[in-house]
């Protein structure tokens, strides 16, 4: 844990009904709601003296959160990261590319572990594979008026400003390509909280028949799409790795037959190399 719960912080106090654990890394108190009569949320309950007798362990399905050891069996039945029935649009490795069993190693290794000779051979292979490709990319840093007020908010920190500039530039580029308009479906890959789709929706204002499909492989808190209640915009979340995502089998796309615009701000992993 980042800091002791008993450390005094005279410049700030936990909000009423919120956790009293001070998160040193974020320089603020935890904002999770606590149970009646408790000072700490479930995640930080180990910091409370009265809870010390019960041990919290990492969830085996998702180590990003913890659970009481004596309640593990119950938790595994309802954990958001538990195995769920596969939807029709899940097709194993549909976007993983062709596999040549003679070339693909059984186990991936980090580049840092390669010898100098192996690294030189890898560079030669990459150069040979990229011969003839137009690999010169030009920066197209743009902006969009939809984010003007947010970008000029004096409360922004460095991190918030960085993300807003990136989102504004993406919107500017989408508009330049004439893809920002009504009667289409925006599919945000690696959506996270859905902030990019949020700003696309703001930029489109009252455009008719706009749909958003937000694709993210992990459970996400504080989702931005929950704020949208416009009658002309429809938001749908799919929790799936794009490695296994078949767009043709998503009910919304097959039913509405709208043009699809793929967007994303941060993507990595299988199926993101093309």
TrEMBL record:
Transport recorded as keyword: no
Gene: TRMT13
Catalytic activity: adenosine(4) in tRNA(His) + S-adenosyl-L-methionine = 2'-O-methyladenosine(4) in tRNA(His) + S-adenosyl-L-homocysteine + H(+); cytidine(4) in tRNA(Gly)(GCC) + S-adenosyl-L-methionine = 2'-O-methylcytidine(4) in tRNA(Gly)(GCC) + S-adenosyl-L-homocysteine + H(+); cytidine(4) in tRNA(Pro) + S-adenosyl-L-methionine = 2'-O-methylcytidine(4) in tRNA(Pro) + S-adenosyl-L-homocysteine + H(+)
PROSITE patterns, per the entry: ZF_CHHC_U11_48K
Family designation: Belongs to the methyltransferase TRM13 family.
EC number: 2.1.1.225
Entry protein name: tRNA:m(4)X modification enzyme TRM13
Pfam families: TRM13 (PF05206), zf-TRM13_CCCH (PF11722), zf-U11-48K (PF05253)
Keyword Transferase: yes
Superkingdom as given in the UniProt entry: Eukaryota
Organism: Felis catus
Keywords for this protein: Metal-binding, Methyltransferase, S-adenosyl-L-methionine, Transferase, tRNA processing, Zinc, Zinc-finger
Function: tRNA methylase which 2'-O-methylates cytidine(4) in tRNA(Pro) and tRNA(Gly)(GCC), and adenosine(4) in tRNA(His).
Domain CHHC U11-48K-type intervals: 56-83
